[in-house]
Specification:
- 2 copies of one chain form a homodimer.
- Chain A is α/β, with parallel strands linked by helices.
- In chain A, 37% of the residues lie in helices and 16% in strands.
- In chain A, strand 8 and strand 9 form a beta hairpin.
- In chain A, helix 1 runs antiparallel to helix 2.
- The longest helix of chain A is centred in the middle third of the chain and has 30 residues.
- Chain A is globular and about 65 Å long.
- Chain A starts with 19 loop residues before the first strand and ends in an 18-residue tail after the last strand.
- At the A-B interface, helix 7, strand 6, helix 8, helix 9 and strand 13 of A face helix 7, strand 6, helix 8, helix 9 and strand 13 of B.
C-alpha cells in the first residue's frame, strides 16, 4: 500500500496497514475505518479525544487490544489540549477524557486498563506544565502499542506450538492485526505457525451482525497470503462434523480470573460445538485482557448494541418493520469449555485462578 | 392483502398469502417471490414447467413441502403443453418435465415425491389424449396442496401438545406457511399452540446466508400477531445459556429412515447447542419428507450452492475479491440429537426405524 497516511513516520503495527497509529508530531490519530473494509481502505484523521471516542463507539476501530491502544492515543490528544492548564485542571481534564473513552465500549477491559495507565502517568507529571505532559503521554501510548505487538508475537509463538502441520483453524470474529496494535492474537497464532513453516489454513466465521470475519479476517489473511475460506456462522458445526477443523482459536474482550472469557457474540456457541466434536478450543489474548477483579464471567458487563445492526444490512432493512431484534454484542464462554488460554506470559489451562498463574511458581508474577 | 392475484379462485393456503397457487383455469402458477420479502409482496406468474423449474432453482419458492407442491403444479403446466400428444410422446414429455424439476434442488425429497406421484398418474391416463390429462394433473396438484395444509395442521396439533404455556420457541430458517402449502410445519406447531390458547413467542435465527428467518419467519409471524424476535445465528447459544429458550422446533428437507434429518445449514449446530443445554429439539415435517430409501443421513445428498450467496449480501460484496467461500445449503442432524419428530401420522422418538413407526402396531401403516 502506497497510500498510508503516516508516511515518513514508522508504523508500529509492523505491517503495511494499521488499525491505529499516532502521527510523528503527536497531533493526530490515524484510524483505518474498518467499517469500509474490504471495499475501501480509508484512514480517518482524528485530532481530539472526543473524535477518538466517537470513532471507538462507532466501530471505526474494534478489537479489545486495538481499542486499548486507541484510548491511550486518545489520551495523548487530551494531554495536548490540556498541556497549558494548572495541575488540578490538567488532571480534571484527563479524568474527564478517560471517562468519555471508558463509556464507549463497556466489555473491552483493555480500554479501562489503558486509560488507567494514562491517568497514573498524568498524576505523576501533572506538576510539570507544558509540552512534557503531552510528550510523555505520547511516549506511553507508543510504548503500549509496541508492547501489544510484542505480546501478540509472543502469544503467536506459544499458540503456534499447539497447531499441527496442515491444520485448519476455525476462528470467529477478527482477532487479527486489525484488532490489535499489529500481528493479532488468534491470527497471530496462525501467522506464527505459518512463519514456523507449518501449512495452515483458516475457516473464518463471517460473524454476524458486523461481519468482522467475512470482511476483516479474510482481508488481512489474504494480504499475508494465508489461505482463508469464509463460512456463515451456522456452518461451523457442519464443518466440524465433517472433520474439517483441527482447532478453534479466538480472541477475547475480557477474561475473568477463573478463565471465563467474554468475546464476540457467537463465540460461546462455537465453544459448545468444539466440545461436542472433541476439537480443542483456544483463546489467544494479551494479559491486558485479563480482569483480575472479575471473579467469573457473570461479573463481565455485556454490551447490548442497537437492534438496527441486526435488522439492517448494508443500509437495507432485512427484518420486517415493527419486528424486534436482540443484539447482545458479546457472550461468555465458561472456562470449562476452554482448552487453553495463550497469553504473552505463557499458556494457561483452565480450571485456573489467574491471580496465581502456573508460571508464577517459577518466578515472580509481573 | 387486497392484491393477491388469484382473486376469484380460492387460495388453498388458508391465509391471505400463499407460497404457490394454481389459477382457476389451470393455466398459470402464482408464486410469491420470497426473495423480495419482507420489502415487497410480489407474485410471479409462471406459464410453463421450465419457468416453474427456474423459479424453484432461483429460490423464488423454497421449503421442501412448498417445493413439492410447486413441482406438482409445474407438472400441470407440462401436461397442458403435452395434452394433444400421443400416449408415448406425452409420457416422454412428462418424464422430461419431471427430470427438469428434479434437477433444481437435490436435497428436498418432497420434490421427487411429487414428481413421482404426477408420473404415476401420467402413466394411468396417457391413453386418454386431450384435456382430461391436464385436468387430472391439476386435480392431483390441488389434492397434494390440500393434503399438505391438512398435514401441517395435524403436525401442529401433535407438536403443540409438547409446548408449555409461555414457551419461547427457537426456530431456524423458515418452516412456515411460506415453506409449505400453508400453515407451516415448525411454525404450524407454534400456530397450533397459539390457537390452543397458549402464550407462545418465537426467537427466529436470521439464518444466513439467505436470511429466511429474518425475512420470512418474521414476516409471517408478524402477520399472525405472534410475537417474534430476530437473532443472528451466533446468538442462539447465548440465548439458550440465559434460559431464554424452552424448545427448538425446526422443519426438515429430508428425513432418513433412522431419523437423521437434513435441514437448512445451521440446524445441526442448533441441535448440538440444544443438547448441550438440555433443551428439547423437535423436527416438524410431513410424511412426504421421509425418505425410506435413505438408511441414514449419510445417504442424503447435500446441495452445495454458489459461493456468491455467502460472499455477497443485497448485491454488495462483503468478502474480499479473491477470497473463497463455502456454501453447503443443508446439514444433517443425527437422530440421537432429535427429541421427537412430529408428522401428521404421529410423533416419533428416535432412535427409530421409520419403516416401522410406532403407530403401525396400532393399525396398518399407509
Amino acid at each position: 500500500m502506497s497510500d498510508v497516511p503516516w508516511k515518513g513516520s514508522a508504523a508500529l503495527s509492523g505491517a503495511g496497514y494499521s488499525a491505529v497509529e499516532l502521527d510523528a508530531a503527536n497531533e493526530r490519530l490515524f484510524m483505518l475505518d474498518q467499517r469500509r473494509l474490504p471495499g475501501e481502505v480509508q484512514y480517518l484523521e482524528l485530532g481530539t479525544v472526543c473524535a477518538a471516542a466517537a470513532a471507538i463507539r462507532d466501530m471505526v476501530v474494534r478489537g479489545a487490544p486495538a481499542i486499548g491502544i486507541s484510548a491511550a492515543y486518545g489520551m495523548v490528544l487530551a494531554a495536548r489540549d490540556a498541556r497549558a492548564l494548572g495541575a488540578e485542571a490538567y488532571l480534571e481534564a484527563m479524568r474527564a477524557a478517560g471517562e468519555t473513552l471508558r463509556g464507549t465500549r463497556p466489555t473491552a477491559v483493555n480500554l479501562a486498563w489503558a486509560v488507567r495507565r494514562s491517568l497514573v502517568l498524568a498524576e505523576q507529571h501533572a506538576p510539570e506544565r507544558g509540552e512534557a505532559r503531552w510528550r510523555e503521554q505520547a511516549e506511553l501510548g507508543r510504548r503500549l502499542h509496541r508492547e501489544d505487538v510484542a505480546a501478540c508475537r509472543a502469544i503467536g509463538r506459544i499458540g503456534a506450538a499447539r497447531l499441527p502441520d496442515g491444520a485448519t483453524v476455525l476462528t470467529h470474529c477478527n482477532a487479527g492485526a486489525l484488532a490489535t496494535g499489529g500481528y493479532g492474537t488468534a491470527l497471530g497464532v496462525v501467522r506464527a505457525a505459518a512463519e514456523a513453516g507449518k501449512r495452515v489454513r483458516v475457516l473464518a466465521d463471517e460473524t454476524r451482525p458486523y461481519l468482522q470475519g467475512a470482511r476483516l479476517t479474510a482481508w488481512e489473511l489474504q494480504r499475508d497470503g494465508i489461505e482463508v475460506t469464509v463460512v456463515t456462522d451456522g456452518m461451523a458445526g457442519h464443518c466440524m462434523s465433517r472433520g474439517m477443523v483441527a482447532a478453534v482459536v479466538v480472541g477475547a474482550d475480557r477474561i475473568a480470573r477463573n478463565g471465563d472469557t467474554a468475546n464476540k457474540i457467537g463465540t460461546y456457541g462455537v465453544a459448545c460445538l468444539a466440545r461436542h466434536h472433541g476439537i480443542p478450543f483456544y483463546v489467544a489474548a494479551p494479559w491486558s485482557t485479563v480482569d483480575l477483579n472479575a471473579a467469573a464471567g457473570s461479573a463481565i458487563p455485556i454490551e447490548e448494541r442497537a437492534a438496527a445492526e441486526v435488522t439492517h444490512l448494508g443500509g437495507q432493512r432485512i427484518v420486517p418493520e415493527g419486528v424486534a431484534a436482540y443484539h447482545p454484542a458479546f457472550d461468555v464462554t465458561p472456562a470449562e469449555l476452554v482448552t487453553a488460554i495463550f497469553t504473552e506470559r505463557g499458556e494457561i489451562r483452565p480450571p485456573c485462578d489467574l491471580r496465581h498463574p502456573p508460571w508464577a511458581e517459577r518466578g515472580p508474577a509481573t
